[in-house]
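Model: You mentioned two targets. I'll fold them one after the other.
Researcher: Yes, keep them separate.
Model: Target one:
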Amino acid sequence: MFDYELNCLISPELNEAQVEEVLKKIETVVANIGTKTAAEPLRQIKLAYPVKKKNEAFFLVLEFKAETDKIGELEKELKKEKNILRFLLIRKKQEKEKNVLLARKQKTAEDNKKESNQEKDILGEEIENLI
């Protein structure tokens, strides 16, 4: 199972009950393919540019775990829902991948520090030779 993040823009023209209905549909589909791990509170945002002729939307962020082969089902269901203006589905990096990337960053930072220290030593020696 992999960690995923779903970001949805939901039509601002819906009333509170309709928005709740759309949220329940999304959560039901997610529950059918995996397990919900976290969700940010729904909020209304102003869009940077119009999406389907709308300048505002409700913004949903939902994190869940699912198998890769089940993601297609989720995408099909989200595309069917007329009140979802746009969605973005992201597969998050696993802990092992994060640790490898972090180790690489630390190693390059250490290498850069060593190189800068060596350069300082060389410059210091050259200055002493000039004096």
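Model: Target two:
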Amino acid sequence: MKNINYGVDEAVDVQVENQHENKKTTKKTTEKIYDIIKENPYISTKDISETIGNITADGVRYHINKLKKLGVLERVGADKGGYWKIKS
């Protein structure tokens, strides 16, 4: 009889490790974006993505939305001419 679970435990362990590593990477990226906005509240998502280098403008928007949901960041004004406000 074949063992249908062969390799499943190892695959699950690798997947859990990858998810944990992704959370660390996501947290670091969010922190980078926060720091960049703190230095220049008038920066655009495109400029943030170019500054970081390995993330798209959509990826930056994803992290900004996380910061907004946490109540740490808010947009004041229009997309052009507005700025990011860091809440304390």
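Researcher: Noted. Anything on target two?
Model: The beta strands are 73-76, 83-86.
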